[in-house]
Amino acid sequence: MYAAVTEKLIYGKRIRTNNQNTDKILSLWEEFLRLNVKGDIYAVYHNYSSDFTGDYDLHIGSEEKFIDESSVMILAGNYHVVEVDNTDPQGVFHAWVDIWKSDIRRAYKTDFEFYSQDGSIKIFLSI
Length: 127
Hints:
alpha+beta, 8-stranded antiparallel sheet, 18% helix, globular
Protein backbone atom coordinates (compact mmCIF):
# COMPACT_ATOMS: atom_id res chain seq x y z
CA MET A 1 0.00 0.00 0.00
CA TYR A 2 1.20 3.52 -0.79
CA ALA A 3 0.18 6.89 0.60
CA ALA A 4 0.93 10.54 -0.09
CA VAL A 5 1.97 12.25 3.13
CA THR A 6 1.87 15.98 3.80
CA GLU A 7 4.65 17.67 5.72
CA LYS A 8 4.30 17.38 9.51
CA LEU A 9 6.34 18.91 12.34
CA ILE A 10 6.81 16.48 15.23
CA TYR A 11 7.86 17.62 18.71
CA GLY A 12 9.48 15.20 21.10
CA LYS A 13 12.65 13.53 22.27
CA ARG A 14 15.58 12.48 20.08
CA ILE A 15 18.55 10.12 20.16
CA ARG A 16 21.22 9.03 17.68
CA THR A 17 21.27 5.24 17.54
CA ASN A 18 21.20 2.12 15.34
CA ASN A 19 19.21 -1.10 15.19
CA GLN A 20 21.79 -2.99 17.24
CA ASN A 21 21.33 -0.61 20.21
CA THR A 22 17.88 -1.74 21.37
CA ASP A 23 18.49 -0.71 25.02
CA LYS A 24 18.93 2.92 23.97
CA ILE A 25 15.74 2.79 21.88
CA LEU A 26 13.75 1.19 24.73
CA SER A 27 15.05 3.84 27.15
CA LEU A 28 13.87 6.61 24.83
CA TRP A 29 10.40 5.01 24.62
CA GLU A 30 10.23 4.67 28.42
CA GLU A 31 11.26 8.30 28.88
CA PHE A 32 8.69 9.45 26.31
CA LEU A 33 5.84 7.33 27.73
CA ARG A 34 6.39 8.85 31.20
CA LEU A 35 5.34 12.21 29.66
CA ASN A 36 1.77 10.86 29.18
CA VAL A 37 1.37 12.58 25.82
CA LYS A 38 -2.17 12.28 24.46
CA GLY A 39 -3.11 11.83 20.81
CA ASP A 40 -1.35 10.27 17.85
CA ILE A 41 2.31 9.35 18.38
CA TYR A 42 5.09 9.32 15.79
CA ALA A 43 8.46 7.56 15.91
CA VAL A 44 10.49 9.27 13.18
CA TYR A 45 13.68 7.78 11.71
CA HIS A 46 15.86 10.15 9.69
CA ASN A 47 19.39 11.43 9.09
CA TYR A 48 20.48 7.93 8.09
CA SER A 49 24.24 7.40 7.78
CA SER A 50 23.63 4.59 5.27
CA ASP A 51 20.84 2.00 5.34
CA PHE A 52 19.10 0.05 8.12
CA THR A 53 22.47 -1.26 9.35
CA GLY A 54 23.89 2.21 10.09
CA ASP A 55 23.23 5.01 12.57
CA TYR A 56 20.18 7.26 12.37
CA ASP A 57 18.29 9.83 14.45
CA LEU A 58 15.13 8.63 16.19
CA HIS A 59 12.53 11.18 17.33
CA ILE A 60 9.49 10.09 19.34
CA GLY A 61 6.76 12.67 19.69
CA SER A 62 3.53 14.18 18.46
CA GLU A 63 2.25 17.15 16.48
CA GLU A 64 1.35 18.83 19.77
CA LYS A 65 4.12 21.00 21.17
CA PHE A 66 4.28 19.41 24.62
CA ILE A 67 7.99 20.05 25.22
CA ASP A 68 10.53 22.36 23.66
CA GLU A 69 13.26 19.76 23.55
CA SER A 70 13.47 18.73 19.91
CA SER A 71 11.52 18.71 16.67
CA VAL A 72 11.75 16.99 13.30
CA MET A 73 9.97 17.51 10.00
CA ILE A 74 8.30 14.52 8.33
CA LEU A 75 8.90 15.25 4.66
CA ALA A 76 6.00 15.41 2.24
CA GLY A 77 6.02 12.71 -0.41
CA ASN A 78 4.98 9.20 -1.34
CA TYR A 79 5.48 6.48 1.23
CA HIS A 80 5.22 2.70 1.22
CA VAL A 81 2.86 1.80 4.09
CA VAL A 82 3.17 -1.36 6.19
CA GLU A 83 0.26 -2.30 8.48
CA VAL A 84 1.41 -3.63 11.86
CA ASP A 85 -0.39 -6.45 13.67
CA ASN A 86 -1.28 -4.55 16.84
CA THR A 87 -2.54 -7.74 18.53
CA ASP A 88 1.08 -8.96 18.64
CA PRO A 89 3.13 -7.31 21.44
CA GLN A 90 6.16 -7.68 19.13
CA GLY A 91 4.20 -6.53 16.05
CA VAL A 92 6.33 -3.45 15.32
CA PHE A 93 9.56 -5.43 15.65
CA HIS A 94 8.24 -8.22 13.41
CA ALA A 95 7.10 -5.66 10.81
CA TRP A 96 10.60 -4.12 10.74
CA VAL A 97 12.23 -7.55 10.35
CA ASP A 98 9.96 -8.19 7.36
CA ILE A 99 10.86 -4.76 5.93
CA TRP A 100 14.61 -5.40 6.33
CA LYS A 101 14.24 -8.73 4.50
CA SER A 102 12.06 -7.24 1.74
CA ASP A 103 13.03 -5.80 -1.63
CA ILE A 104 11.27 -2.46 -0.96
CA ARG A 105 13.37 0.25 -2.60
CA ARG A 106 13.71 2.61 0.34
CA ALA A 107 14.99 6.18 0.02
CA TYR A 108 16.24 6.34 3.64
CA LYS A 109 15.07 9.94 4.00
CA THR A 110 12.28 10.08 6.59
CA ASP A 111 10.57 6.90 7.77
CA PHE A 112 8.07 6.83 10.61
CA GLU A 113 5.87 4.67 12.76
CA PHE A 114 2.38 6.10 13.28
CA TYR A 115 0.58 5.07 16.46
CA SER A 116 -3.04 6.18 16.04
CA GLN A 117 -5.34 6.94 18.94
CA ASP A 118 -7.61 4.15 17.60
CA GLY A 119 -4.87 1.57 18.37
CA SER A 120 -3.75 0.95 14.80
CA ILE A 121 -0.06 1.11 13.93
CA LYS A 122 1.44 1.77 10.50
CA ILE A 123 5.01 2.13 9.32
CA PHE A 124 5.63 4.66 6.53
CA LEU A 125 8.80 4.17 4.45
CA SER A 126 10.15 6.92 2.21
CA ILE A 127 10.51 5.64 -1.34
